[in-house]
Amino acid sequence: MRPVQAPFPLTRHRRTRASSAIRALVQENDLGVGDLIWPVFVCDGTGVEEPVSSMPGVVRRSVDRVTEAAREAADLGIPAICLFPYTDPALKTASCEEAWNPENLSNRATRAIKSATPGIAVMSDVALDPYNADGHDGFVVGGEIVNDETVAALVKQALSQAEAGVDIIGPSDMMDGRIGAIRDALEDRGYKNTMILSYAAKYASAFYGPFRDAVGASGALKGDKKSYQMNPANSDEALRLVERDLREGADMVMVKPGLPYLDICRRVKDTFGAPTFAYQVSGEYAMIQAAAQNGWIDGDRAMVESLMCFKRAGCDGILTYFAPTVARALA
Ligand SMILES: NCC(=O)CCC(=O)O
């Protein structure tokens, strides 16, 4: 694109910014409730809504409360909800078998939501960290996060989620070869319409801190995730990973975190044209909320602006903890 313009004063850019009517006419991007995926935290118990202190406004919910929240989200027009379990530490082991237990929290919540509100899409998380005594997304053997053995476990986890009725499988683990392995297994078992939204470009980021509190993983993690999550300095590598995951059968791809990585979103969208999502992660959410609580920024405006920026960067949708709040603001 090569914009052409007459010299000043023949062109006055402020003409098209002079009133809200004209600003609306020339607006290039839109944020709608249909762009939102709402990540929620699921915990044990009944009637539980437990605040996450590092994420003001976010709670962990027991399955009954998540089911109610999903119904409310669907009523607001939010198309999808993404489940993250807060696993009882007693169930975290080195072999991570709770990850593919048909009765684990995530699978129970999926079944409850799909039976109460079949219209909302349920997305799941595929990774071993909620179930791993070491807090890593893969098995740890002799200090190494082993790839191929982990992929075999992720396949079992994904199949248990598909069996529970998940619409969108979300592998967030960053092992190599997991998308192809999960896709083959889904096809073999007849889950032909189960989608995969691959966390294709997931960076080893400091912005995940509050999430680890929310799922009780902060204390568990030994070491860091730099041998499988991406180096924040890299951009071309993201394109290679997205291409690989699309070739292995991903329906949609994700960039994570969001706002600090909008350049990656734009490159991914422009290069592949695939459905592209960004995850506005817990640290991004917490920064906006903390500044708003201190009166340093207007939280509602910053929320909408930050989400609009994802659309401007080419994203088709955003995973955001703000989903219900922004849905109400847009209504
Ligand atoms: N696999 C999911 C995450 O790591 C979420 C991170 C965040 O919200 O900070």
UniProtKB/TrEMBL annotation:
Top-rank EC class of the record's enzyme: lyase
Reactions catalysed: 2 5-aminolevulinate = porphobilinogen + 2 H2O + H(+)
This protein's record includes keyword Lyase: yes
Lyase as UniProt keyword: yes
A Pfam family per the record: ALAD
Pathway noted in the entry: Porphyrin-containing compound metabolism; protoporphyrin-IX biosynthesis; coproporphyrinogen-III from 5-aminolevulinate: step 1/4
Entry keywords, A to Z: Heme biosynthesis, Lyase, Porphyrin biosynthesis
InterPro entries (UniProt xref): ALAD (IPR001731), ALAD_AS (IPR030656), Aldolase_TIM (IPR013785)
Highest rank taxon of the organism: Bacteria
Family annotation (SMART domains): ALAD
Single GO molecular function: zinc ion binding
GO (cellular component) term, any one: cytosol
EC number: 4.2.1.24
Active site residues of this protein: 202 (schiff-base intermediate with substrate), 256 (schiff-base intermediate with substrate)
Database matches in NCBIfam families: PRK09283.1 (NF006762)
Family annotation (PANTHER family): DELTA-AMINOLEVULINIC ACID DEHYDRATASE (PTHR11458:SF0)
Family recorded in the similarity comment: Belongs to the ALAD family.
Protein's name according to its UniProt entry: Delta-aminolevulinic acid dehydratase
Organism: Aquicoccus porphyridii
